[in-house]
């Protein structure tokens, strides 16, 4: 194994091996998702180095900020954000899945009825994945309007991508929980926020934060009731867990995070 430095970290070692396997098996005609520069985590250039030897010495190699974070998180598994949940069956619902219509990638996990093991409908309880401190709770959220949907679609088409403000609008009513060390979980498209969930509140793992909805989605306007799901993100610094990684690696990372590997 060439990623000697990574082998010091048990968890990242596994991720590195899985990624290397995935890259070896990847045909040249396969088009890997192309993260934007801000979404590319440091680990990726190392793993994509074609020559085996200079992994550590590569000019682009810089310390991976995630390893201590994940080493701290993994021993205490995350709770599924919907009771009885599991990882979505489709890679398209995983983090780092391409979203070509906006020239970007999906940054979270989507939990829909019928694809995530859980009973999911309007108002299904959304649960904190890990203990932490609420840093955002959209208590005065106002629903997206038809005019906003049109304007955001036009802006995305004009720019060629959805900017941060647009993406934030599309995430709808949200709760964010800070777990320290740069790790924040986001719960999006909520239909409601639970009593007592406000900025500064401490939450337990599994504590209800709100209810499943479809707030912020264009379908809230164009086809109400058809986008009822939870979009949940695991943020690490300015990026998200799984950024720049192949689906098999992303799946492995999240299975370990939820103690389901
Ligand atoms: Zn999503």
CATH superfamily of the largest domain: Glucose Permease (Domain IIA)
Number of strands: 12
List low-confidence stretches.
1-65
Described by strand count, sense and barrel closure, the largest sheet is:
7 strands, antiparallel
Strand fraction band? 15-25%
Mean pLDDT comes to 79
Write structural notes for this entry.
- The structure is a single chain.
- The chain has helices spanning 4-7, 10-24, 43-47, 66-73, 146-159, 164-170, 219-222, 247-257; strands spanning 98-99, 104-105, 109-112, 125-127, 132-137, 175-178, 183-188, 192-193, 202-203, 208-211, 229-236, 239-240.
- With 261 residues, it is α+β, with helices and mostly antiparallel strands.
- It has two domains: 4-73, no CATH class; 91-243, Glucose Permease (Domain IIA), CATH 2.70.70.10.
- Strands 3, 5, 6, 7, 9, 11 and 12 form a seven-stranded antiparallel beta sheet that branches. It has a three-stranded antiparallel beta sheet with strand order 4-10-8, with no helix packed on it.
- A hairpin with a 4-residue loop joins strand 6 and strand 7 (183-188).
- 37% of the residues are buried.
- Mean pLDDT is 79; it is low at 1-65.
- The protein binds zinc ion.
- Zinc ion binds at residues 106, 108, 110, 231.
């Amino acid at each position: 194994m060439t990623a000697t430095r990574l082998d010091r970290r048990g968890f990242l070692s596994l991720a590195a091996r899985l990624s290397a396997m995935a890259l070896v098996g990847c045909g040249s005609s396969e088009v890997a998702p192309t993260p934007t520069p801000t979404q590319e985590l440091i680990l990726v250039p190392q793993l994509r180095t074609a020559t085996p030897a200079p992994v550590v010495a590569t000019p682009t190699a810089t310390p991976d900020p995630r390893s201590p974070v994940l080493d701290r998180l993994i021993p205490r598994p995350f709770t599924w954000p919907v009771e009885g949940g599991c990882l979505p069956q489709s890679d398209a619902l995983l983090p780092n899945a391409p979203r070509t219509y906006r020239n970007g990638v999906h940054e979270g996990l989507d939990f829909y009825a019928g694809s995530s093991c859980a009973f999911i409908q309007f108002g299904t309880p959304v649960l904190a994945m890990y203990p932490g401190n609420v840093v955002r709770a959209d208590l005065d959220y106002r629903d997206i309007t038809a005019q906003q949907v049109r304007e955001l679609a036009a802006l995305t088409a004009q720019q060629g991508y959805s900017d941060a403000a647009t993406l934030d609008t599309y995430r709808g009513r949200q709760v964010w929980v800070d777990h320290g060390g740069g790790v924040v979980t986001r719960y999006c498209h909520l239909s409601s926020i639970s009593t007592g969930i406000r900025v500064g509140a401490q939450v337990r793992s599994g504590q209800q934060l709100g209810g499943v909805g479809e707030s912020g989605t264009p379908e809230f306007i164009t086809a109400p009731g058809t986008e009822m799901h939870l979009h949940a993100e695991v943020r690490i610094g300015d990026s998200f867990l799984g950024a720049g990684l192949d689906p098999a690696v992303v799946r492995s990372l999240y299975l370990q995070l939820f103690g389901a590997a």
